[in-house]
Input
Amino acid sequence: MKKWIIIKLISLLLLSVSCNGQQPNEKLSDKKNGIVGGGCDGCELMYIGMPEKIQSTNTSPGWNEKGQKLIVTGTVFQIDGKTPAPDVIIYYWQTDDDGYYSPKPELDNRVKRHGYIRGWVKTDEKGKYTIRTIRPSPYPNDILPAHIHLSVKEPDVAHEYYTDEINFDDDKLLIPHFKKYPQENRGGSGVVRILLKDNLQIAEHNIVLGLNIPNYPKKLTVVSKSGLNVGEDQPSFIPFHAYGPDRGTQTCPVCKYGRYHGIIYFVGNNTNWNEVKNWLQFLEQESKNRKKYLKVYFVYGSDKDYNKYQRLSQLEKLGSHLDIQSTALTFVPSFVDEKTEVYLNKINPEAENTFVIYKHRNIVDKYINLKPTKENFKMLSNALDKTQGDFFDLSEPDYE
Output
């Protein structure tokens, strides 16, 4: 209810145009109404003014007005996080450069609270979409970070539902907000990281349909469960580095090397060291081939007979034996350890292994219980190629 109280304190104008579909009092109805997503006040507004034919690329009414030009682009996936989803309608609305949902005289009265910077895209046959707009500004004199609202309508699901708002990781209001109101990860993480192309800012944002959506009708059959979902952000944690880059430190992998691809190779209580050696040899070569575009981390987290110094010695010998240079060999006391914050990864210690692939701090692929075969080596390599996207080489802004 705290979040609702804060929203109520926003100025009358902002209250009249804000999205009420994401407030706690409405979430309480999830189990009662059985509506996909739990329903929300305002989601139905996506149908007002909707064009008969919707393209996969849309230019918002704000594109040619004042403000930082922004391109939001990505892929919509089915609930497995890997299969592209075509013909999905995404409705967006946002504030202008002054932080208001400004209406226009010609705007239908029913949607004035969404403002005039609103529009629709429909994913193409590859699940891709692009929105050309301006970067929204935060509400004036408020604590909420700038955001873009999203609602989606699948062709074979009865109801539209909202996903996490798009937020910007360089927004100084974001971290204080998330400390009070953690992400729901509806459809995956809404946090985007800005890339630069000339005078444009580009934000890649993928959506995983049904992920963390109440009453979602499609179910994903999972044989083994370990790790976070594709579409969620790779959390920060600080393992002990025994060998390789950052040896002797507790460097956070995603904090220092989060811009491009990263592979985190977790093994726990059921470690087959011959298989580990085969995997490390492949990953070491893959890391060398891809240079700065790939960082690999081996994280050993068995909780059996844990001794820090014995484990350190064990991984040092392993790294020396394999002549490891690029791959970081790290360890944690267990996968539920809170001091290293590895527990945030939700790794199953009984799984033979868990491979998490992230790009720009967002999880783009995951594999569990993989054997070190040529076929699986090729599969991981192909996964890296496939998830690069169109903006892999672009630079980030210089942050203070």
